[in-house]
Design goal:
By secondary structure, the chain is mainly beta. It is built from one helix and eight strands.
């Protein structure tokens, strides 16, 4: 199996407005806001950056999403720990979570089935 690069970057923040302005000051363009303290920005030819606000008492996370062409064609080496197999998401993709040798979680994202 081979991935096709980084599909998206997901970031959590304690202040959506400040985070969006920060990325815009770096040259990113706001593609859309969801209306509930989150949205997506894009910079040039790179992957989109989706930012979501979380409560102050929750630690923020950053996640890189790796693109795969077909979830059904993914065959992982047995040494790769699958945390969650491919599942349909509410945003129209299929995602799998794996853990690397240092304990970091990685998301593999594929187009919807069929």
């Amino acid at each position: 199996m081979s991935t096709q690069g980084i599909d998206a970057v997901f970031l959590e923040t304690h202040n959506w407005g400040k985070a969006a302005k920060f990325f815009q000051s770096l040259g990113f363009t706001l593609e859309f806001e969801t209306g509930h303290d989150s949205g997506q920005l894009r910079g040039n030819d790179g992957p989109p950056v989706f930012i979501a606000e979380v409560p102050e008492d929750r630690e923020t996370r950053a996640q890189l999403v790796l693109k795969v062409a077909d979830a059904d064609a993914v065959e992982l080496d047995p040494s790769v720990e699958v945390v969650a197999p491919f599942e349909d998401t509410h945003h129209g993709t299929r995602e799998m979570t794996v853990r690397d040798p240092d304990g970091r979680l990685w998301t593999l994202q594929a187009p919807p089935k069929g």
